Amino acid sequence: MAVTRTFSIIKPDATRRNLTGAVTKMLEEAGLRVVASKRIHMSKEQAEGFYAVHKDRPFFGELVEFMMSEPVVVQVLEGEDAVTRNRDIMGATNPADAAAGTIRKELALSIGENTVHGSDSDENAAIEIAFFFKPEEIVG
Ligand code: ADP
Ligand code: MG
Known about the structure:
There is one protein chain. Strands 2-3-1-4 form a 4-stranded antiparallel beta sheet, sandwiched between helices. It is globular, with a radius of gyration of 14 Å. The chain has helices at residues 12-16, 20-29, 44-50, 60-67, 82-90, 103-107, 122-132; strands at 3-10, 33-40, 72-80, 116-118. The protein is of the alpha+beta class and 140 residues long. Adenosine-5'-diphosphate binds next to helix 4.
């Protein structure tokens, strides 16, 4: 398996509860390495642009408001088959459906306030990484 990269966000429900370290520890224990990380407060434009794929979903407005409500930590993660590895440790979108030991099962509050974002394909990982990071900000 190849070493690849994925994009992660530690969402506002987690930064608000001081869980940046707890989430990062779970990512690291799953075999992922943080090769870029910054704490930002997303603008409306950034939140809408990042989640444009969901613009027709009924929860879009709520999602954008949530993502700009408090700071987030955007990260690039590296590891073997990073996209799948990250989705596995994240758990299902709805924490009620997430497997034991996953980030969302252990830490998330609800289907909306679900602690982490993770890219769903290598193609989207590349797009999402480029949305928030310049190449020189990523140090593997
Ligand atoms: P995932 O984050 O697991 O890839 P999606 O891409 O389907 O899930 O949705 C993006 C984000 O939108 C979710 O992580 C969650 O924060 C929010 N979301 C998804 N479904 C709902 C819903 N039914 N109600 C409120 N928020 C939702
Ligand atoms: Mg998604």
